[in-house]
Design brief:
Blueprint (H helix, E strand, L loop, with lengths): L16 E2 L30 E12 L2 E12 L3 E6 L5 H8 L4 E9 L2 E2 L5 H4 L4 E4 L11 H9 L27 H13 L5 E5 L7 H18 L2 E5 L3 H7 L2 E6 L2 E6 L1 H6 L1 H8 L5
Parallel strand pairs: 4-9, 4-10, 7-8, 8-9
Antiparallel strand pairs: 1-11, 2-3, 2-5, 5-6, 10-11
Helix pairs in contact: 3-4, 4-5
Bound molecules: adenosine-5'-triphosphate (ATP) and magnesium ion.
Length: about 280
């Protein structure tokens, strides 16, 4: 069983950080203070802190994927995770949603320890997750899809942010376009009014126009509800243009965290890990 350490002092340093492939701060101070507020957790004074992951080692059974990762994300901000295929981006989100095996390290959300909270309880901690694939029930109508996650009689209420979907409420999801299906998946994530939203590649396989619509919706949600958004994106430029902070993963380690513009300017990192040709 992995440890349930209370958080130590924040390892976060201002500005961008290049990481040497190993976690920056593995020192965990212990405190007996109840994990009810970030301030109670080892003196982290950032009251906007929504997620704090420390020295996380996790994976699937014996397959270790993340090798001691530190990560944090704030309310009212969009935090992006980028990296090549198989670098562990989805696994980061799955760890937050109780979908992979945590070997060691800690995960706190909104001041509470969720390191070993099972997936079926995570919604109660204010966290929603939009999976990379198979994120709607294709054979169910939009109304039925929403009813699966809400039990709501009135699916229209769940559509406040998605009026463009209202005409299709009684059509099976399989008949929607790719972009409309992603909007439905977002609506299903939103119905619980989460403070933390995890989006795994919401624009995958969409046309540039639809991708812009989805990213626009995500930014609107962030601006209107001051929630914490963690966005995994395959379109790196898209992600970097639209986030407040970025993590670059490589082989299950954080190799950069901080300002997105600084990462774009770092020709070494951009060409080595993101396949961007130096200009
Ligand atoms: N359910 C699973 N069981 C075993 N190994 C898994 C599982 N899911 C992912 N992996 C492995 O974990 C590693 C990281 O996968 P992950 O899906 O987190 O990568 P990713 O960065 O999201 O990649 P992509 O950009 O292709 O979506 C890969 O080597 C993958 O094969
Ligand atoms: Mg993935």
């Amino acid at each position: 069983m992995a440890s349930r350490n209370a958080l130590g002092s924040s390892g976060e340093k201002p500005g961008a950080e290049r990481h040497g492939g190993a976690p920056l701060d593995t020192a965990h101070g212990k405190t007996d203070a109840p994990a009810t507020s970030p301030a109670a957790q080892g003196g982290n004074s950032n009251s906007n802190r929504a997620i704090e992951i420390k020295d996380l080692v996790c994976g699937y059974g014996k397959n270790q994927v993340l090798h001691g990762v530190d990560f944090s994300a704030d309310l009212s901000k969009i935090t992006a995770i980028v990296g090549s295929n198989g670098s562990g981006k989805s696994t980061m989100l799955k760890a937050l949603f109780g979908l992979c095996d945590v070997k060691s390290g800690s995960i706190h959300a909104l001041g509470r320890d969720i390191t070993h909270v099972p997936t079926h309880s995570i919604l109660g901690y204010g966290i929603s997750y939009m999976a990379q694939r198979k994120n709607v029930f294709q054979d169910l109508t939009l109304r039925e899809n929403l009813a699966v996650v809400t039990g709501l009689r009135n699916a229209e209420q769940a559509m406040d942010h998605f009026p463009e979907l209202l005409p299709f409420l009684d059509r099976p999801a399989v008949t929607l376009s790719g972009g409309q299906r992603q909007l439905l998946a977002m609506a299903m994530v939103l119905v619980h009014k989460p403070r933390i939203m995890l989006f795994d590649e919401p624009t995958a396989a969409l046309s540039p126009k639809n991708a812009d619509i989805i990213i626009g919706k995500i930014k609107d949600l962030n601006a209107q509800h001051e929630n914490c958004i963690v966005l995994v994106e395959q379109n790196v430029k898209h992600a970097l243009r639209n986030c407040d902070k970025v993590y670059l993963l490589a082989s299950g380690n954080v190799v950069y965290s901080g300002d997105p513009a600084t990462l774009l300017d770092d020709k070494d990192l951009a060409s080595k890990y993101l396949g961007m040709t130096p200009q």
